[in-house]
Design brief:
Layout: H1 5-17, H2 20-27, H3 31-45, H4 60-87, E1 91-98, H5 100-117, E2 120-127, H6 130-138, E3 144-148, E4 156-171, E5 193-195, H7 205-212, E6 216-217, H8 221-229, E7 234-238, E8 249-253, E9 260-268, H9 275-285
Parallel strand pairs: 1-2, 1-3, 5-6, 5-7
Antiparallel strand pairs: 3-9, 4-7, 4-8, 4-9
Helix pairs in contact: 1-2, 1-3, 1-4, 2-3
Organism: Spiribacter salilacus
Domain HTH lysR-type: 5-63
Domain LysR substrate-binding: 89-285
Length: 287
């Protein structure tokens, strides 16, 4: 027979209140039930815990081991509470990686609401290119990612969230900013083009020819937009990337071949998310 947690708990109640009757009242059990549990514990230990014939006074053995028993029961209770809190999505830690355009547009409001509804869940956010996001998920450095399905590994699952239109971005004073409607690919040819790798999946020969003629390649979007503001040239970006930018930049969608990209949740296939991770993924899905 093994020692049960309720036996240790009843021992502590009797020891704390120096009374089997008080312990029975606090535990909502009968006094004989409390006495039997303590006697069974003593039998398992082969040592008396309380002096016989005295008012629930601890023996030297009982006093010696009272702190360890108290620590064990408290640890048991904390562990169970932590398990239940985690299972009920009340506590936990979540790490996610996102492409910057989605992070800047959608994450602030969503995380504000999530923090209010899940105050004990901590969240770490990092951003990077679509390939970087996928790699972080594959390497298990983050719990899930938000990105595109470009070059998606077979080990990853992709669940679409939204579509993002791609287009030409230039300074408001640039000649292309003055033309209405969609921007033709051919109209980019006379101007300095700054690429950042966003359109590497495009297969249309005419568009590929334009992209390959680019004079500058700047992957970092902050640096890229700074160069466009300075008038160095034009660039091609998803519309979400311009959220929150100043009015000095103009976005024009591209004519055929028009380009859109699907943005979605990325996570490892066949792996059940932890409760806290599932809670945040659900919040992202309901943006």
């Amino acid at each position: 027979m093994s020692i049960k947690i309720h036996q240790l708990r009843y021992f502590l109640l009797v020891a704390d209140h120096h009374s089997y009757r008080a312990a029975a009242s606090l535990a909502a059990r009968s006094q004989p039930a409390i006495s039997q549990a303590v006697h069974e514990l003593e039998a398992l230990l082969g040592q008396a815990l309380f002096e016989r014939g005295r008012k629930a006074e601890l023996t030297p053995f009982g006093r010696e081991h009272y702190p360890a028993i108290r620590s064990l029961v408290d640890h048991h209770d904390r562990t169970l509470q932590a398990l239940f809190d985690s299972a009920e999505r009340k506590t936990g830690q979540v790490a996610l990686a996102s492409i910057p355009s989605f992070a800047g547009r959608y994450l602030p409001g969503m995380l504000l609401r999530f923090a209010d509804s899940h105050p004990e869940i901590s969240v770490a956010v990092e951003d990077g290119t679509a390939i970087y996001v996928q790699r972080r998920v594959l390497d298990r450095q983050v719990d899930f990612g938000i990105g595109t399905d470009a070059e998606l590994s077979d080990e990853l699952s992709f669940q679409p969230l939204t579509e993002d239109q791609m287009g030409m971005v230039c300074h408001i004073s640039h000649p292309l900013a003055q033309q209405p409607g969609a921007c033709r690919w051919e109209s980019l040819r006379p101007y300095t083009l700054i690429t950042n790798g966003t359109f590497r999946q495009l297969l249309d020969p005419a568009a590929v020819d334009i992209l390959q003629s680019a004079r500058f390649h700047v992957p970092n979007i902050v640096s890229l937009l700074a160069l466009v503001r300075a008038g160095l040239g034009v660039t091609l970006l998803p519309q979400l990337a311009l959220f929150g930018q100043d009015e000095a930049l103009v976005f024009r969608p591209l004519e055929a071949p028009a380009v859109t990209r699907s943005i979605g949740l990325i996570h490892l296939r066949n792996q059940t998310p932890r409760p806290a991770v599932q809670a945040l993924m659900d919040a992202v899905r309901h943006l």
